[in-house]
Each structure stands twice: as C-alpha cells, then as structure tokens.
Amino acid sequence: MQVKLIPVTAFMQNCSLLVCEKTMHAAIVDPGGDLDLIQTQVQKSDASVEKVLLTHGHVDHCAGASALAAHYGVPIEGPHPDEKFWLSLLPQQSTVFGLPQVQTCAPDRWLYDGDTVQFGHEVLEVIHCPGHTPGHIVFFSRKSRLALVGDVLFSGSIGRTDFPRSNHIDLILSIRNKLWPLGDDVRFIPGHGPMSSFGEERHTNPYVKNYVTAS
Ligand SMILES: [Zn+2]
Ligand SMILES: [Zn+2]
Predict the structure, then answer these.
(1) Strands of 116-119's sheet, edge to edge?
(2) Would you give per-residue pLDDT tens digits along the chain (215 residues)?
(3) Number of the ligand closest to the Cα of 159
(4) CA 60 to centroid of ligand 2, rounded, Å
(5) Can you spell out the DSSP letters for 98-141?
(6) Ligand 2 centre from 11 Cα, in Å?
C-alpha cells in the first residue's frame, strides 16, 4: 500500500491518500479541505479513487468530503453513527474555526467496531475509539502495520477532550485497550503532526505511557 500525506487546512490536518499497488485503486482519508492539493496528488499517483473515508466529524477532517466524493463519484464511509451530531454541525464548525463555509455531510455507510472497508485489494479494519468525539474511528491495515488514528493519539500527545460529548476517560481507555494491543511495531498517522509508533508512545507519551510500578 502506498501512503501519501497531504496536510490540509489552516490546522495542517494530515489527509491521507492510500493506494493499492496491485490495482491502483485509492482511498482518501479525512479530506478536510484544500481539494486542489488532494486532486493534484491523486493525479500524480495515477490512482483511481474508490472511496472517501472519515475518522470523525470535525471540520478540519471532513469539510471537503462531500465535494470530493461527488467529484470522483464515490461513496463516503465512516465515521461511527455517534458522530452524526458533529457532521450536522459542520456549517457552525466552519464559522467558529474561520474556515470556508461548508454544508453538512451524510456518509453513504456508517462504520462500526469490527467492520472492514476495502479499496482495491487492501483491507482496513475499523476500530471504534470514542473519547475525543463519541463516534471517532481508527482505520488499521494489519498487513501494512499502519493505523490512521485521526485525533485520538498524536506523537507526544492525545486528542482534546474539552468538546461537547468528549470524554477523557473514554479516550485513555480507547488508546490503552484498543490501540496498544495491535502491537508496539504499528506505525500510525495522526490527524496532525508527525507519524510515530504505538511502541514509541507507550514508552514516552506522558498522557498514556505505561505506569511504572515501584518495587
Ligand atoms: Zn478532531
Ligand atoms: Zn483534527
């Protein structure tokens, strides 16, 4: 699987272009805006876009989803249905964050924990990781040992939980109980900032590193 990161919007959100190397079919994850940049990368990669995937309903992750899906004539898959209220608030979110006006977004398929999504021959597992937002999901390629974690986890930090219906405890439990078991070797693309691995964060991230017990 080829992976291309395309930072978009004033928030430098990591939109990802994933391409199946066997079929050159692609998925675009979290197109928050700057569609011209995304479309240029699609052209350069010579891929044919098969679907748009969303981790959660924040405007910097999904403001471009409807327009991009319409442009390529493809469906939008994700997030989890608990994210409906955030998607319905997209127009208000764009006003609050000073981003271009955007309409609400209605996914063609809601995703649940344990679901899989496919493009070309690539399969991504869906992991429901509430906390930052209630319907946040993570996409995991078991074959590539790569996770796309949105705003759940960052290099050295974790997602904000000061939004309506955020929950700090849920977020910590999502990371510890659902991400760590995937393996220390798993590298991840966060919604913002540089990539890292679960092993690196388990050892160094002050918000979620393993407790050291005194003997
Ligand atoms: Zn977010
Ligand atoms: Zn974000």
Answers:
(1) 116-119, 122-128, 137-141, 146-150, 187-190, 196-197
(2) 999 999 999 999 999 999 999 999 999 999 999 999 999 999 999 999 999 999 999 999 999 999 999 999 999 999 999 999 999 999 999 999 888 888 889 999 999 999 999 999 999 999 999 999 999 999 999 999 999 999 999 999 999 999 999 999 999 999 999 999 999 999 999 999 999 999 999 999 999 987 544 44
(3) 1
(4) 6
(5) TPPP------SB---TT-EEEETTEEEEEEE--SSSTT-EEEEE
(6) 7
Angstrom distance (rounded) from CA 112 to CA 90 = 22
Dist. CA 22 → ligand 1 center (Å): 32
**CA–CA separation, 215 and 26 (whole Å):** 51
Ligand whose nearest atom lies closest to the CA of 60: 2
20: left (phi over 0), alpha (psi -120 to 50) or beta: beta
> What distance in angstroms lies between residue 23's CA and the mean position of ligand 2's atoms?
30
Is 0.70 topped by the overall pTM?
Answer: yes
For ion ligand 1, residues whose CB falls within 5 Å? 58, 151
